[in-house]
Predict the structure of DNA-binding HxlR family transcriptional regulator.
Amino acid sequence: MREILAKIGDKWSILTIMMLSGGTRRFSELQRGIEGISQRMLTLTLRGLERDGLVTREVFPTIPPRVEYTLTPLGRSLQQPVIALGQWVVANLPEIDTARRRFDAAAEDRGGN
Amino acid sequence: MREILAKIGDKWSILTIMMLSGGTRRFSELQRGIEGISQRMLTLTLRGLERDGLVTREVFPTIPPRVEYTLTPLGRSLQQPVIALGQWVVANLPEIDTARRRFDAAAEDRGGN
DNA sequence: CAGTATCCCGTTAGATACTG
DNA sequence: CAGTATCTAACGGGATACTG
């Protein structure tokens, strides 16, 4: 369970699932949509999701090549929780930021590093 | 947002929040409840959650010392999404496991190392 | 009890270069 | 386009020892 949570909860996995919630996407679309992800990490993330049965990978042998990723039914069942989490983060980002500044300022006062 | 997700999505944070969903807990209770966490990681995780305003830390200057951790309102607002995620994992663990074995077996066939 | 302080190693992720 | 391969710096996290 720890291991599954670590994988599902992984930031790249969450962002990828959020992207795929909008429907089938190509590799390059995902990379453009997920800010900051490297080619390597996108590949590894997609392989992991595929392995866990959350995503299917379909290759079109055209030139140039084209690969499409789609959520499986299992993957879609994960949408609700994951999107809820994502929305929570977006909604509460300002409050977290404030809390951090307060915490850091207090640490500073106590003789911060 | 990436950074917040990375922190929230962290396995220890999720498990800690799940533990604290049951109410206020002492340091040692948390350590016993979260299987596999080290003293160091529990301390670091709690500091992070405290910094982000999700958890409060209350020290009782008794002998022996006693420290209690409680979810803040912000932390409690995170309960729903986090617990939903945890429940999804528990509910779908078998299916994920099956998918993995299938995937690994297929890789094996294709000459997987 | 509830930490803090070190040491240290394995994994991870970013950058870069190459390919079917 | 959609990867794979390789190298390396950074980080995570365990073990251990010490303390208010």
